[in-house]
Amino acid sequence: EVQLVESGGGLVQPGGSLRLSCAASGFTFSSYDMNWVRQAPGKGLEWLSYISASGSTTFYADSVKGRFTISRDSAKNSLYLQMNSLRAEDTALYYCAKGLRGTRPDYWGQGTLVTVSS
Amino acid sequence: DIVMTQTPLSLSVTPGQPASISCKSSQSLLHSDGQTYMYWYLQKPGQSPQLLIYEVSSRFSGVPDRFSGSGSGTDFTLKISRVEADDVGVYYCMQGIHLPLTFGGGTKVEIK
Question: What tens digit of pLDDT does each residue of B12-37 get?
């Protein structure tokens, strides 16, 4: 059974940093592309970032480019999102999602909540 | 970026009746490889999104056959042949042909 468990969310002040983690199990993590997607409270889904199975290719939404960095550690079956220069508008539930074919998500974690507020 | 426009915003359906959701993309989702990268997700209340349909019409693992997807180019439809109580939630379409991946605004389905 595919399982994705996010962690690392919390309350952070504007301008602060946070590192999210996603622990993967139930599939060969090193063989699949991975994504981060977020959902602001009461809002829709916003794709943020993608990393290829090898980790050699990454893409970012314009809204987070230059502030967020996606990475992965296949030895630990883990995906990460380093978030810097956080803003109030980054407040959201952050999901990691496994790629089905390439980047397109199939399985999603339960999410970790990030709140940016002073 | 590709804009995905979903209609209606909400739907109230009697159990056992059909339901249909439309999604239009601002660009064709037909890739040069011959695939059309259109996806449908359901987010049940309090849960994370779950994939229902991929590449226009393929049902994902475990998805009941009362769910079906159709369409081509820029116009797509998700149909539920007989709505059940367990189908409530917000349905999202998503295009997977170009990054950034973009989602429709969602259609909230309720049971009458």
Answer: 999 999 999 999 999 999 999 999 99
